[in-house]
Specification:
CATH superfamily of the largest domain: P-loop containing nucleotide triphosphate hydrolases
Organism: Lygus hesperus (Western plant bug)
Helix content: 25-40%
Shape: globular
Strand content: 5-15%
CATH topology of the largest domain: Rossmann fold
Number of strands: 7
GO molecular function, one term: ATP binding
Number of domains: 2
Largest sheet: 7 strands, parallel
Structural class: alpha/beta
Radius of gyration: 23 Å
InterPro entries: P-loop_NTPase, SecA, SecA_motor_DEAD
Keywords: Protein transport, Translocation, Transport
CATH class of the largest domain: Alpha Beta
Protein name: Protein translocase subunit SecA 2
Order of helices and strands: HHEEHEHEHEHEHEHH
């Protein structure tokens, strides 16, 4: 500390750690994965325990977590609106996929609601933003690197606001809706990719209709992305939500078995 103040009196780059005069001592290493084994009692809360598959349950049991309790939400049944037929679309090309996302956003904005759009990558998000950013009055981008992070979250639930998010923002972010938006049906969520882990989809759905609020959810997918993720074959014609969901569960079990080995 004293060396830091001494160096402040002369020209030095505070980002160059060699200027600080620290002595680095390697005193050992520790595995964070092993730390839970040292505790006699571990308690945890999660909203996705019911979606765990076999190999994930086994991983949890390896830490002596053997008792699970499923409690109903304090707010009762969810007000989320999602129809597996009408709120699910697969488009043949990326151009049509982006156009459909834009069309769906506009449909919701006409009711003066707010829209959250989740993309699998920043690349896909940015491509959409570059093409349509001049067509929205209130457009925000929310990623891991967003500087005005809290402002974006606070204003995401205001009428006529569109917030483009990376998939990471679909977990643990507490979006709130204004009274005006609630009156018209709450925040609308559009997921533009198919989650290979059902828990991720559940979390993204949970960004709206929080507590006892209203909300709706929609899946708009690109066939090319589904083929790339090996969810469907190139010649596949069966692209129903129920079919893709079952395919996803099978993939999770297969990959989980490989990881367990």
């Amino acid at each position: 500390t004293f060396n830091y103040f001494r160096l402040k009196k002369v020209e030095f780059d505070h980002r160059d750690y060699s200027n600080y005069g620290y002595i680095l001592l390697d005193t050992g290493r520790i595995s964070y994965a092993k730390l839970p084994e040292e505790f006699p009692l571990i308690l945890g809360v999660s909203g996705t325990v019911g979606s765990l598959i076999d190999h994930e349950k086994e991983a949890i049991r390896s830490y002596n977590l053997n008792s699970f309790s499923f409690l109903p939400t304090f707010f009762g049944d969810s007000n989320l609106k999602f129809d597996e037929v009408n709120d699910f679309q697969v488009l043949d090309s990326e151009e049509n996929w982006r156009d459909k996302i834009f069309e769906s956003i506009n449909k919701v904005l006409k009711k003066h609601r707010a829209v959250l759009v989740f993309f699998s990558t920043y690349y896909n998000l940015n491509n959409f933003q570059m093409e349509y950013r001049n067509k929205f009055d209130r457009l925000y981008t929310l990623t891991e690197n967003t500087r005005n992070y809290l402002k974006c979250i606070e204003e995401a639930g205001i009428s006529n606001t569109v917030t483009l998010c990376t998939r990471v923002m679909g977990r643990g972010v507490d979006f709130k809706s204004s009274m005006a938006v609630e009156k018209e049906g709450g925040v609308h969520v559009i997921q533009t990719f198919f989650s290979l882990d059902v828990k991720e989809e559940k979390q993204i759905k949970g960004r709206t209709a929080r507590k006892d609020n209203k909300g709706s959810y929609q899946l708009i997918l690109c066939k090319k992305h589904l083929i790339d993720d090996k969810i469907i074959e190139a010649k596949s014609s069966n692209q129903m939500y129920s079919t893709l969901h079952q395919r996803r569960l099978n993939l999770m079990k297969t990959e989980g078995a490989k990881n367990a080995e």
